[in-house]
Amino acid sequence: MAKALAHPELVSLAAGFVDHETLPVEAADQAWRELFSRPAESRAALQYGTTIGYPPLREEIVRRMRAADGEPAGPVHLDASQVVITAGSNQLLFLVADVLLDPGDIVLCGAPSYYVFLGTLANVGAQAVGVQVDQDGLVPEAIEAELLRRRAAGQSQRVKAIYVTTYYDNPTGCSLSLARRAALVDIARRWSLYIIEDAAYRELRYYGPDQPSLRAFDLDGETVIHAGTFSKSFSPGIRVGWAVLPKALLGPVLAEKGNIDFGSPNFNQLLMAKVLHGGQFDAHVARLRESYRRKLDAVLQAADELLAPLGRIHWVRPSGGLYLWLRLPDGVDTSVAGPLFARAVDEGVLYVPGDPCYGQGAPRNMLRLSFGSPTTDDLRRGIAALARALRQVMP
Ligand SMILES: Cc1ncc(COP(=O)(O)O)c(C=O)c1O
Questions:
Q1: Phi and psi at residue 176, to the nearest 5°
Q2: Which of 226, 239, 314, 330 has the largest CB neighbor count within 10 A?
Q3: What number is the average pLDDT over the span 63-92?
Q4: pLDDT digits (tens, 9 = 90+) for 210-219
């Protein structure tokens, strides 16, 4: 951030911000005006709410999850009593870590994983154990092998959960395949673990069909902790996310949430409910998909034309989300202290080094590019700058 501020001419392919230009100013303005044209609703918006959240919003989330996850595989036991509104999904991730984990407990995470959650786990003294991922997401066989290893080491009791981003992962851009969704829920049930399903990017789908969430495979609703958010699909500033919780976790999470926030901002929840009911949300997501699809196409085209000729650089082509994850040749160090980072800044581009996305034993040759914020021209300029920097350091 300091480098970006000091050099405003840099193209930042680092920050995971949603696109500033497509933020839903008119849609939010229209919903806000409608809300405040009704005195009873305006007063409700300005009053305290409940810790669990605004009932019509929770009902609408259930309706949408049922529609997206489909019948008959749909979550038969899903109802609004298990849906908790949070200040973005990050609050839910914190609450779950806080409630579920004691110091020394283990959470199995993809290697790599969303680095903010790795920080949350470290803060509660838990251990994030990295498990292999590939282009189809977390590898179930690798999870099972790690569980067997932990059992042999007498540590099964310490493993509490699996954390997985099921759609267009941050940082890899990959989604968990359909077959693996069923397999993962099966493993978690057999080993009595929770799965924390982070679905932050579900709506940012540019190619291919939607997939049912892990929650749809959890027929008694006691295994999957589902975290959703309107941050990526509408506005991170409104800070409304939600959780679908197993019944056993509802009480503890609500008690902790009540201690911390006394309920998520009611105004934001009523605004979000208005946006969903009024049709502005769906219209916005449709526009967003168009715009991000163009950016994804641009970043992939630039990578094909400018990075591929350098050889030995690999990436998986994402079909949604905001990230492109690059694997460079073994000797290239992408870390902030390494030579590539400094050269990239000199050439005019910022990226996110891959090493913070791993628990232990982080490889040094990975990096993340975010394509959501820059214009298509800047994406090309940024990739060209990265190619120039890479040419100077590639062995
Ligand atoms: C994978 C993942 N999960 C959760 C979040 C948190 O988003 P929010 O708290 O705004 O819902 C992010 C934000 O970048 C993310 O990338």
A1: -75, 130
A2: 226
A3: 86
A4: 999 999 999 8
